[in-house]
Amino acid sequence: MKALVYGGPGKKSWKDVPDPTIEAPRDAIIRVDAVTICGTDLHILGGDVPAVQPGRVLGHEAVGTVVSVGDGVTNLAVGDRVLASCISACGVCRYCREGSYGQCLGGGGWVLGHTVDGVQAEYARIPFADLSTYRLPATVSDEAAVLLADILPTSYEVGVLNGRVRPGDTVVVVGTGPIGLAAILTAKLFSPAQVVAVDRAQSRLDAAKQFGADVTVLADADPLAAVREVTGGLGADVVIEAVGTPAAFELCTTLVRPGGHVANVGVHGKPVTLHLEDLWIRNVTITTGLVDTHSTAKLLDMLVAGQLDTGHLVTHRFPLDEILAAYDVFARPAETGALKVVLSR
């Protein structure tokens, strides 16, 4: 089969690799019907995730059809159409029992495209398949469903829930790529008074408006002045960092009010200065996190019910065998206007 293979920082290729096989009783093999590219994949290619070794098949967001299952799989059958979660869960370790699947001690967590071969391929092995896939109703398209593999639960759990967004809050989202836009979309579920979007690209701020941002600010302007203006000088109740750079994180800590929350969602590959000399006296809560995907089933229900409109997130579509072109488009959003790219058979 063909797959997108990591060759080291800055190197990737679409090449022949062996077909995946059942390696453990709880595995399933899926035919990949739709897949997307994540900002984390770009971080891997940038050398920011050294645990990913050359030769690894990338990708952790897919919709597929089950083609075989291990003897220990009880909830799936050949032919089932499923969402493959970005997080795998053994279901029995301490963290899984607490719903913290991202920290699984039994061989799960974020493994796809990280420590085991991922889903940017024609076929993929899904560990712990009963707990790491979701059967999809016919009313949900592949394109809509694949957004539930990572960006929607990540933004909702690590950004909105960790940030404790409440009705009437002022929420600032720094970085309005796909994760930031999904954070805006899911923050709106909690009826904030206003959402402020900050980004370096006007095209992404325009997209933020479509997703419900009330105020947009270019990062090169004066975000602090803009946030103070709309909060009477107080600062934001919740600031969500959705970039993964030192500058973005430090900006977030200046925008939050005393007693507020900074929820870091971005993947960081470099050290960040934590200005405790300024923050210690302000009662600021800072959270970090890897998504657990405990919310995926609920988000799928909301998608089916029409409570989540994800239609504007996908801007580019490609056949699966044009994945190198898709990477090129996705990696140059300021020029291409790309948000999410979806590749299908």
Automatic annotation (TrEMBL):
Protein's UniProt keywords contain Zinc: yes
Domain of life: Bacteria
Family: Belongs to the zinc-containing alcohol dehydrogenase family.
Residues in Enoyl reductase (ER) domain copies: 7-343
Keyword presence, Membrane: no
InterPro entries in alphabetical order: ADH-like_C, ADH-like_N, ADH_Zn_CS, ER, GroES-like_sf, NAD(P)-bd_dom_sf
Protein name: Alcohol dehydrogenase
Protein keywords: Metal-binding, Oxidoreductase, Zinc
Any matching Pfam family: ADH_zinc_N
PROSITE patterns (UniProt xref): ADH_ZINC (PS00059)
GO molecular function: oxidoreductase activity; zinc ion binding
Organism encoding this protein: Micromonospora echinaurantiaca
Cofactor names: Zn(2+)
